């Protein structure tokens, strides 16, 4: 029951045992719960760390369980604080990455200076990616926004991916949720997983990112203008910030093999939630579509459906009603 709060089954069992009989010691808990002593002691330690067990005033040297109402509220508050901290780290990583890209954007095209190279043109980018893929030794992490890739992009990536996976390279890729609705792109993503890669999806992603062996990163200079080229950098500080950005994105994404829940308790899909947030922040339908990796037609169709559910006759009225319902 408490697994969603981060409590493993044996830890929950020890907590329940202490609630049932606060005077129990390790031996009694082992006998009552049918657990090994090591599991019981580990459970007690974790419960103390979580604040669910405190020093007893009645039993000298013993512990007393905190009431579930208070204890679980403490856990939820700690999780909220951790989420806020991770969101702050993500914002800082994005800012650091953006500053780094801006700093190196003035490099001469296709010339390496101090471990950074500005790549201009699809051929220059593809040539560099082929070299980096051939040199891959252990791990490749990538974020691929923009929805389904074109057939040409998949054709260019497939031999590089296949060769790396045959050599035992660990591959982690995050696509946007919209790829789940594209048969060709979904087939490619499933092929990756069958070959040993790990694939996840998320409604909204930061800009495109490739990290090779945690030492080299390739990012677009201007996410809104692919013609501006890409930056290939080996700077440890920049690469570390980009790795942090990838980790935050990866942890919030859903594995391809696990279907994303179609709706939450409010009846909203993940994509509908993000669409409302993007439009409420002032983005146009077209800009919101780009962020979600879907067409303008899809955005307008989804928004029309939301307005109908909200019984709203205008976007403004829909925004007010969505806020009233706690959708924003």
Structural commentary:
With 328 residues, this protein is α+β, with helices and mostly antiparallel strands. 53% of the residues lie in helices and 14% in strands. The chain is built from twelve helices and eleven strands. The strands form two sheets. The protein has a nine-stranded mixed sheet with strand order 3-4-10-9-8-5-6-7-11, sandwiched between helices. It has a two-stranded antiparallel sheet with strand order 1-2. Helix 1 crosses helix 3 and helix 4 packs across helix 8. The longest helix is centred in the N-terminal third of the chain and has 37 residues. It is globular, with a radius of gyration of 25 Å. The two termini are 28 Å apart.
Order of helices and strands: HHHEEHEEHEHEHEEEEHEHHHH
What order do the strands of the largest sheet run in, or round the barrel if closed?
A: 3-4-10-9-8-5-6-7-11
| Rounded average pLDDT | 79
Classify the beta-strand content into a percent band. 5-15%
Outline the fold blueprint.
Elements: H1 9-20, H2 26-33, H3 37-50, E1 53-55, E2 63-65, H4 68-104, E3 112-113, E4 116-119, H5 122-135, E5 139-144, H6 151-166, E6 170-176, H7 183-194, E7 198-202, E8 209-212, E9 216-220, E10 230-233, H8 236-252, E11 254-255, H9 270-280, H10 285-292, H11 296-310, H12 315-324
Parallel strand pairs: 5-6, 6-7
Antiparallel strand pairs: 1-2, 3-4, 4-10, 5-8, 7-11, 8-9, 9-10
Helix pairs in contact: 1-3, 4-8, 5-6, 6-7, 9-10, 10-11
């Amino acid at each position: 029951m408490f697994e969603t709060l981060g409590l493993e089954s044996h830890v929950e069992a020890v907590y329940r045992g202490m609630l049932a009989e606060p005077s129990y010691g390790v031996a009694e808990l082992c006998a009552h719960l049918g657990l090994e002593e090591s599991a019981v002691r580990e459970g007690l330690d974790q419960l103390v760390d979580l604040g669910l067990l405190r020093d007893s005033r009645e039993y000298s040297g013993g512990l007393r369980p905190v009431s579930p109402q208070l204890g679980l509220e403490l856990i939820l508050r700690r999780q909220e604080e951790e989420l806020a901290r991770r969101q702050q780290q993500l914002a800082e990583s994005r800012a650091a990455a953006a500053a780094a890209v801006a700093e190196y954007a003035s490099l001469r095209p296709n010339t390496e200076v101090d471990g950074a190279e500005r790549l201009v043109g699809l051929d220059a980018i593809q040539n560099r990616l082929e070299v980096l893929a051939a040199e891959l030794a252990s791990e490749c992490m990538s974020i691929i926004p923009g929805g389904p890739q074109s057939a040409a992009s998949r054709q260019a990536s497939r031999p590089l991916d296949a060769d790396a996976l045959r050599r035992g390279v660990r591959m982690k890729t995050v696509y946007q949720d919209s790829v789940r609705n594209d048969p060709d792109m979904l087939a490619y993503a499933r092929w990756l997983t069958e070959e040993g890669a790990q694939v996840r999806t998320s409604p909204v992603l930061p800009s495109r990112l490739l990290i090779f062996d945690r030492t080299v990163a390739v990012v677009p200079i201007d996410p809104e203008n692919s013609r501006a080229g890409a930056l290939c950098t080996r700077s440890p500080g920049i690469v570390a910030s980009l790795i942090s950005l990838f980790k935050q994105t990866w942890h919030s994404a859903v594995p391809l093999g696990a279907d994303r829940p179609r709706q939450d308790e409010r009846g909203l899909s993940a994509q509908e939630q993000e669409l409302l947030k993007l439009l409420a922040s002032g983005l146009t339908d077209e800009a919101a579509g780009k962020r979600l990796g879907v067409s303008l037609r899809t955005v307008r169709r989804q928004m029309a459906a939301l307005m109908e559910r909200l019984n709203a006759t205008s976007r403004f009225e829909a925004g007010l009603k969505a806020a009233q319902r706690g959708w924003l």
